[in-house]
Amino acid sequence: MRFHRFRPRVWVATVFVAAASLTVTTFTAQADTTGAAGAAVQLAPADEHDGADCEVGSPGSTSNSRLPDPFTKADGSRVSAKSDWRCRRAEIKELAEGSVYGNKPDKPESVTGSVSSSSISVNVSDQGKSAGFSASVDLPSGSGPFPAVIVYGGFGADTAAIKAAGAAVISYDPFAVGKEGTPRNNKQGAYYSIYGGSSDTGLLMAWAWGVSRIIDVIEQSGGSVLSAEGTGVTGCSRYGKGAFVAGAFDQRVALTMPIESGSGGVGAFRSIASESGAQPLSSAYGEQPWLGDPFGSYTGNPAGLPVDTHEIVGMIAPRGLLIMDNPHIDWLGAKSGSVAALGGAEIYKALGAGENITYWSDVQDGTHCANRSEWRGPITQSIQKFMLGSGTAPGQFRISGKKAGNLAEWRNWQTPTLTD
To answer: What residue range is the signal peptide (predicted)?
Structure first.
């Protein structure tokens, strides 16, 4: 693995029991503050996927009503060292592609484009076909080059807080890459122009592919305007689902910030199926072709899935992750979001990076995709830590008692102590 300046940290937890409308759980952590202010702290490998050389096995077809053990490999052995996670992550990646999202192709044969202070152009050629798309750029004040947060869809993200923290905003229209409102056998957009409208890859993965191609162009640009060393991604609702998948499937993303992502997003599939009022899996699958075609076999049987979203959270580890949830709208399944975040936090903990994940659903305003004052601090801290290399990560779990999940109900595995 090519992690730079990654040091094990100490995980410290404090637990509070509070009234139903208040925070019930808060995790905090001791962070490494030895880096010079403003120095780049790069927790992301230089590759989109650093486990391409791993031999990935296939687990047997077993049904499990609880969250699968993220530390058990396909061959039945358990992860015992931090270095083992690279290839375990590669197994989870293949399971998630094969059962949930559809395939994300390897890096295309050709990616070209340009970066200016106002826009990015992307041109992709692969398998004898070509397509392109563009995104707008909004720079913060000061002198660049700037790290950038790729914002899905143009709403729901606190772009003012992002810019105030010192990062540029890249406004990304995912519909240019994968359009909604199209049938599964005739999906459209730049991704499907190359890989075919009947591809079993869902829109979330197609959108993630587009994010990766934006990062390719930033890397090629020479860094005069935007820096490729600290890219973030965020979005709300369907775009929160997209941001979550983009961060999981491109390890160059230093900070992932999904907002109110609901069913098909962060929320654990097994938990969603039993959470009162949450959008059913069949509805999330049928509303738009967000999820890959293979997921259709599991909408009524999530226990048969070989993977769940706590492991997708773990695919992001040890990189920065800030999950923002809304407990006031049942449809969004925030209880299941907390279950997945708590399960994924065990992976962060095992890797010695417990403070790099934050989950926050303790908010007063129930409006969907509102900019919330409670989130402004953790957004700023996360950008400064993971994209600018200064300060400390938020490292907290602020779970609203209105939608508090209990990880103990969903797992029968224990978190190992991994050797360095």
So the answer is: 1-31
Number of domains in the chain: 1
CB 408 within 8 A of CB 26: no
Please state the pTM of the whole predicted model: 0.91
Q: Report if residue 418 sits inside a domain.
A: no
One digit per residue, the tens of pLDDT, for the chain of length 420 reads 333 322 232 333 333 333 333 444 554 443 333 333 333 344 566 899 999 999 998 876 679 999 999 999 999 999 999 999 999 999 999 999 999 999 999 999 999 999 999 999 999 999 999 999 999 999 999 999 999 999 999 789 999 999 999 999 999 999 999 999 999 999 999 999 999 999 999 999 999 999 999 999 999 999 999 998 899 999 999 999 999 999 999 999 999 999 999 999 999 999 999 999 999 999 999 999 999 999 999 999 999 999 999 999 999 999 999 999 999 999 999 999 999 999 999 999 999 999 999 999 999 999 999 999 999 999 999 999 999 999 999 999 999 999 999 999 999 999 999 999
Is residue 417 one of the residues assigned to a domain?
Answer: no
Token couple for 20: 């139903």
- Alpha carbon dihedral 299, 300, 306, 310, in 10-degree steps, equals 60
Q: What's at 77, amino acid-wise?
A: S
Q: Give Cα separations from 40 to 45, 53, 114, 228, 315 (angstroms).
A: 14, 28, 24, 11, 22
**Residue 2 belongs to a domain:** no
CATH number for the domain spanning 14: value is 3.40.50.1820
The reply to whether 3 falls in a domain is no
- Point out the catalytic residue in the list 212, 227, 237, 382: 237
**Domain residues for 163?**
10-409
For the question of residue 237 being annotated catalytic, the response is yes
